[in-house]
Specification:
Elements (H helix, E strand, L loop, with lengths): L14 H60 L9 E3 L4 E3 L15 H10 L14 H9 L3 H12 L22
Antiparallel strand pairs: 1-2
Length: 178
């Protein structure tokens, strides 16, 4: 199966054509930026209209939640071995969360490792092995004979360094009048 490369074509025939087309690109880029700014302004205005009403509704909802929760705690017999109760307007109940490890107050992961080592519990300490990509790139960047040997060794392991290049257009921005 043969691979055919895509033929690259352009309508640009001169530097003047290129200047004009980049200007056109900048115009459209600035139009998009202006539309996005207008959209964001409208979203902020609509959000502001609803904020007060949503805050008030949230306070009322929280009051209802606290009262229902208190009732559920005071009436465990209503759950009778179940975790939930089905009502006409919804279901209330208790969910068991996923188990999690909780360290003593003020303990960090580093001090937890020290604690486990002190209690002779090394099976609860994980050692993470991972490639040192920063070191590989530093060796690649070094310009000495050791680096060349290193590159051959990594090449035998199938490890390569790839640095991509991307095309960009950086249009000049125009001030957008509101």
């Amino acid at each position: 199966m043969s691979r055919k490369s895509k033929k690259i074509t352009t309508t640009i025939t001169s530097r003047e054509d290129l200047e004009n087309l980049v200007g056109e690109f900048a115009k459209w880029e600035n139009n998009i930026a202006a539309m996005k700014a207008e959209l964001e302004a409208r979203i902020i205005a609509v959000r502001a209209e609803y904020e007060a009403a949503m805050a008030a509704a949230g306070v009322e909802r929280d009051i209802c939640y606290d009262d229902i929760f208190a009732w559920a705690q005071l009436h465990p017999e209503q759950f009778a071995g179940r975790k939930s109760v089905e009502l006409l307007q919804g279901v209330i109940g208790f969910r068991t969360g996923t188990p999690k490890v909780v360290w003593p107050k003020g303990t960090t992961d580093a001090t937890a490792v020290e604690l486990l080592q002190a209690k002779l519990l090394p099976e609860y300490i994980r050692t993470k092995h991972e490639p040192d990509k920063e070191k590989i790139l530093a060796e690649f960047a070094a310009d000495d004979p050791v680096s060349e040997q290193w590159a051959v060794t990594l090449g035998k392991a199938g490890i390569r360094i790839r640095q991509d290049e991307r095309f960009y257009i950086d249009p000049k921005e125009e001030k957008v009048a509101k």
